[in-house]
Amino acid sequence: MAQNMIDSIAPLMREAGKIILGAHDADSENCLHVKPGTQNFATDYDIAVQTFLINGLKEAFPGAAFIAEEKENNAAVLQGELCFVIDPIDGTNCFIHNCRMSCISIAAVSRGHVVLGAVYNPYSGELAHATPGGGAFVNGKPAHVSERPTELAVAVFGPSPYYKDTLSVPTFEMARELFCSCVDIHRTGSAAIDLCSIASGSCDMFFELILQPWDIAAGALIIEEAGGIITQIDGSPITLEHPCSVLAGTPKTHPDLLRIGAKYAKYCKGKIYE
Ligand code: IPD
Ligand code: CA
């Protein structure tokens, strides 16, 4: 089923992408909704894209459950027959500022396992997808992680922008250490795009000290199917049950992420991770 799923989901993602591309007033006060956390916003467009996707997926997959960024969620539905984990706009701040660095992320989960990951960047037109054991693809072409060693790597990271109080100091210390171990470091503003850049080999390592299930559900499978490795900061598997830290890399770079991350693992525990 998962192989054919992309045929139903890709047209929906492309259609939803038009809502993002057609936005004109994303930074207007009327369009913004304040969410919990530091400077955490959603726009009317996040909600419109989410509604469009949920309605379309309900029609194509009757009975499916949903976990999505702009609604109340219950992780128990991950254990059901079919659940879609949706980030309608990953990179909402980029979207508000018209940086053209946002995407739509959808994972299909069955009985706790991701059976399809799809990330669509409407600005570049790139659609990355993967199924377990089926490989990873970008616009239909096989994707593979790089073979660069850490000293030739480009890293990308997310500074957990909604958790500045607790995580900004360890994040930027870890980023500095990483920066000094590789060639350069980037910040895009979309974790799903970052994960896809590891899968396609343009970047080689990624970390963020806290991410939500909808940020990573699709990208994690895409990385693994592209030959990469994704874990929490202590090396344990990532989870979609609650927020977690993320280290993503290649067989060449992930060991260095784990080594550098070890010092910062103590910050990735406690209430905000439960
Ligand atoms: C955010 C982006 C960003 C990451 C944040 C995420 P949102 O998602 O993925 O890159 O640094 O931690 O929350 O809020 O734009 O959907
Ligand atoms: Ca997100």
What does this structure look like?
With 274 residues, the chain is of the alpha+beta class. Helices cover 33% and strands 27% of the residues. It is built from 7 helices and 14 strands. It has helices at 2-21, 44-60, 92-96, 164-181, 191-199, 213-225, 254-261, and strands at residues 32-35, 40-43, 65-68, 83-90, 103-110, 113-121, 126-131, 135-138, 141-142, 154-158, 184-186, 205-211, 229-231, 244-249. The chain has a 7-stranded mixed beta sheet, sandwiched between helices. Helix 1 (2-21) runs antiparallel to helix 2 (44-60) and helix 5 (191-199) runs parallel beside helix 6 (213-225). The longest helix is centred in the N-terminal third of the chain and has 20 residues, at 2-21. The radius of gyration is 17 Å and the shape is globular. Calcium ion is lined by residues 69, 87, 90, 214-215.
Entry summary:
This protein has seven helices and 14 strands. Strands 3-4-5-6-7-8-9 form a seven-stranded mixed β-sheet, sandwiched between helices.
Helix content: 25-40%
Order of helices and strands: HEEHEEHEEEEEEHEHEHEEH
**Cα distance spanning the termini:** 32 Å
What is the mean predicted local confidence, pLDDT?
96
Query: What summary fits the major beta sheet?
Result: 7 strands, mixed
Structural class: alpha+beta
Shape: globular
Adjacency order of strands in the biggest sheet? 3-4-5-6-7-8-9
Low-confidence stretches at least 5 residues in length (pLDDT < 50)?
A: none
In DSSP terms (H or I, runs of 4 or more residues), the helix count works out at 7
Amount of beta strand: 25-35%
Present as ligands are: D-MYO-inositol-1-phosphate, calcium ion
**Strand elements, count:** 14
Q: What is the C-alpha radius of gyration, as a whole number of Å?
A: 17 Å
